[in-house]
């Protein structure tokens, strides 16, 4: 049942407790998974062949941790106690981080697609270097910060939503700018890069089938692209419903959208913070081996027969940024 109570809750108490338990589970998995990712990235910091790829992975993990630490607890509090939990100042802060986290996530994925394009499609020697990655990620944070700050300063405003647990920006001008700058533009960038990667692979399919060990680097780049494509696909599955509901709610059709849809799209977007660590540790052998070097008991979970020592040695000798099992 989704009706607003006298306390400002829009769920019955049993439903609110259930949703809060699910959200708290997402928070716990978010903290554990992304902390482990950052630990593995730190462990691999001296490996020059993975530093550029890992700085992007670390950036995504930091963003996901921000969502877990800053946004999810507020969502739980609002679910249980109602919108009265959010003051006017709290609403602005909550709305700011909602936009900041979402924008930074999708632009980081766009930057990763550029990295894959440069590594696979561009001529040899054109791949991104560490200083390029740092400048690109700095630009991502600046753009995301500016977009999130706009409703507080000069364009639009953040308001409580009567059907969700978070504050969201309103104002058609800002919504249009946000849609173009933080969804359409990065999505077009990713589409262009991955389409060209796909065409490159298709043109070289015969060569790929006959490559020898001398072509290990290119094979690894293609495997890395598969991981990144999976990350992108999961991002779209988790965030596209949220973005769609968000745009519709600001186009005068908010009354036609069920509160259940608002809540489910919000939970799905929050669950995205758990997905990336799962992808890295299941598809990336280097990450998996370094994790098992710390926690030998996980070998059974990953269904591998290699000893921890052998796995760690193999990881150290890997010539790839990411290697799919």
From TrEMBL:
InterPro entries found in the cross-reference section: GPCR_Rhodpsn, GPCR_Rhodpsn_7TM
CDD domains according to UniProt: 7tm_classA_rhodopsin-like
Gene3D superfamilies listed in its UniProt record: Rhodopsin 7-helix transmembrane proteins (1.20.1070.10)
Membrane-spanning residues: none
Subcellular location: Cell membrane
Stated name of the protein: 5-hydroxytryptamine receptor 4-like
Topology in the lipid bilayer: Multi-pass membrane protein
Organism: Paramuricea clavata (Red gorgonian)
Recorded GO CC terms: plasma membrane
The keyword Membrane belongs to this UniProt entry's keyword annotation: yes
Membership in a protein family: Belongs to the G-protein coupled receptor 1 family.
Keyword Cell cycle: no
Chief site of localization: membrane
Molecular function GO labels: G protein-coupled receptor activity
Record's keyword terms, sorted: Cell membrane, G-protein coupled receptor, Membrane, Receptor, Transducer, Transmembrane, Transmembrane helix
Source superkingdom: Eukaryota
